[in-house]
Amino acid sequence: MENQRILDRLERLRSAMRACGADWYLVPTADYHNSEYVDDYFKVREYLCNFSGSNGTLIVGRTEAGLWTDGRYFIQAQRELEGTGVTLYRMLEEGVPSKEEFLAQKMREGETLAFDGRVVDTRFGLELEKALAKKKVTIDFHQDLAARIWTDRPSLPCHPVRVLDAFLCGKTAREKLESVRAAMKELGASCFFLSKLDDLMWLFNIRGQDVPCNPVALSYAWITETACHYFLQEKAMSETFVSYAADCGITLHTYQETADFLQTCPVEGKILCDPNQVSYAFYKILSGRAPVIEAPNPTERMKAVKNETELSRMREVFLKDSAAVCKFIYWLKKNIGTQPLTELSAARYLDGLRAGIDGYLDLSFPTISAYGPNAAMMHYEATEESFAVLRPQGMLLVDSGGQYLGGTTDVTRTIVLGELSQEEKAHFTAVAIGMLQLSDAHFLYGCSGRNLDILARQPLWEKGIDYKCGTGHGVGYILNVHEGPQNIRWRYTEGMREAVLEPGMDVTNEPGVYLEGRYGIRTENVMVVTEAEKNGDGQFLRFETLTFVPIDLDAIDPSLMQPKDIWRLNRYHAMVKEKITPYLNAEEAAWLAEATRAI
């Protein structure tokens, strides 16, 4: 039934394509701000092809269609696309064309490629121009065909913004604006167009609710040497916020005014914008007004380096969040096999524990509770229609996090429910060794995550195993669970940005093993870069771990570990016991003492 609905939608799309003269139509996974996660209003790609992952691009021709996604979603996409007539293209796999290569091969001279330029980022739009130039292809970026065929499309999200209390921020919005203007001056820009939602929230010390699990508000900013114009939906402007904006020297406009303002406002000098974030449609407006400086948003790095106020709040929040996960593991181990449990009921229990923590706002992403073979899908999500029953055998992978007034968390543990094979233990132990090796890194300032990734992967690569994703990503502060520019990954990709790891940056550490149809294992902590010694060889750095949850000793095989691996595990578990015991009752504390025993 669902497959037939998808086939019908694709046919209606092709009819709309013929009506507007489009031979090919492109649909990314994005909103008007190139956000990773989007509100239902923007889930056009999912509506058209049934793939529900957070990253993917659909390309539809008159007679064929393809979906491009990354290694996190290969298994999920294959299942969700079955019977839809949409071909899966596994990105970065050998022999798989990129989106640009595919279109350059398939499109005939003089044909038209259409898309909604508001949801395609500038970098990709310019790459399409370059790839298709020889074919003399017309690019029509004014076509929101979903508006024609999606008759029951949800409304554009809009919620009141919240002004954060000063004690949470460490810097005022005025101070942050001064820093941004200083960065603009260094780059030679007199104007700056900012469209990245979490950067906007950070800059103005506000939060919204327009994207599930991401406390952001749909908005834009135009910043000059003397003025700051902020574009926000009118219903999102509470009286408190309007007064606050005036105090901060921010001039307010409605969200819908943005394009007209940019086409008519006075522009002197050069305009700064980030081609990876600003939409292709807005770039066309800006580049028609003045020379454009294409550079990363200076707000991105500023936001990534947490100040002492933010770090202090984060340490408090991570302890409480870690305690909730410990309580959950105790509950799960106690009740497995004695009462009916499912992936869904387990996730709901953990979600309820988080909701009881002071300052709780929301989950930081929908809890991934994946049992057995389901855990091989990195971003699996159980639903009311499809979930597994938990049994006292195998492992349950739980990846979860919360949004709090004081921080954003992200933690994964793979929990033993019953008997394991020797292979499962070997893989679990290798993942733990890699995670602990990276946690214990001692490195020089100037390293990026690419210099360190091997510490996490090496125990798996020695076994001829890899995981098709990065090892780590930045985490927001009361913001998006994924943020940059910092990350930890091994692959070099032309044009991909790399960032030096700076003291104050936080990053996840999450190696794993994923065997389709069998099981998945992931162990994830969040760490903060801190200064170590400084000498004639330079400034050395270390990681401070924020997450304190036991690594399941029922899956650890000490015979596969070197003495230093065992020392690292015992040291980590001693810290878990010390820091988390005060948050537990007597029974939970007794369990934790056993779960963190020295091996």
Give a written overview of the molecule.
- The protein is of the alpha+beta class.
- The chain has 3 domains: 2-149, Creatine Amidinohydrolase, Chain A, domain 1 (3-Layer(aba) Sandwich), CATH 3.40.350; 162-302, Creatinase/prolidase N-terminal domain (Creatine Amidinohydrolase, Chain A, domain 1), CATH 3.40.350.10; 305-588, Creatinase/methionine aminopeptidase superfamily (Creatine Amidinohydrolase, Alpha-Beta Complex).
- Helix content is 35%, strand content 20%.
- It has 18 helices and 28 strands.
- β27 (525-535) and β28 (538-545) form a beta hairpin.
- α13 crosses α14.
- The model has no long low-confidence stretch (mean pLDDT 94).
Outline of this structure?
This protein is an alpha+beta fold and 599 residues long. The chain has 18 helices and 28 strands.
How would you classify the helix and strand content by structural class?
A: alpha+beta
Give the count of helical stretches. Answer: 18
Low-confidence parts, pLDDT < 50 over ≥5 residues? none
Question: What is the beta-strand fraction?
Answer: 15-25%
CATH superfamily of the largest domain: Creatinase/methionine aminopeptidase superfamily
Distance between the termini: 53 Å
This entry's quaternary arrangement is single chain
Keywords:
599 residues, alpha+beta, Creatine Amidinohydrolase, Chain A, domain 1, Creatine Amidinohydrolase, 3 domains, six-stranded mixed β-sheet, 35% helix, 20% strand
Question: What order do the helices and strands come in, and which of them pair?
Answer:
Layout (H helix, E strand, L loop, with lengths): L1 H19 L3 E4 L16 H6 L7 E5 L3 E5 L4 H8 L4 E5 L8 H8 L5 E3 L7 H11 L5 E3 L5 H4 L12 E2 L9 H15 L3 E4 L2 H8 L1 E2 L11 E6 L3 E5 L6 H9 L3 E4 L3 H7 L6 E3 L6 H8 L4 E3 L3 H7 L3 H28 L7 H13 L4 E4 L4 E4 L23 E6 L1 E3 L2 E2 L2 E6 L5 H18 L3 E2 L4 H13 L10 E3 L8 E6 L17 E4 L2 E4 L3 E4 L2 E11 L2 E8 L17 H18 L5 H10 L4
Parallel strand pairs: 1-5, 3-4, 5-6, 8-13, 11-12, 13-14
Antiparallel strand pairs: 1-2, 2-3, 7-9, 8-10, 10-11, 15-18, 16-17, 17-20, 18-19, 21-28, 22-23, 24-27, 25-26, 27-28
Helix pairs in contact: 4-5, 5-11, 13-14, 15-16, 15-17
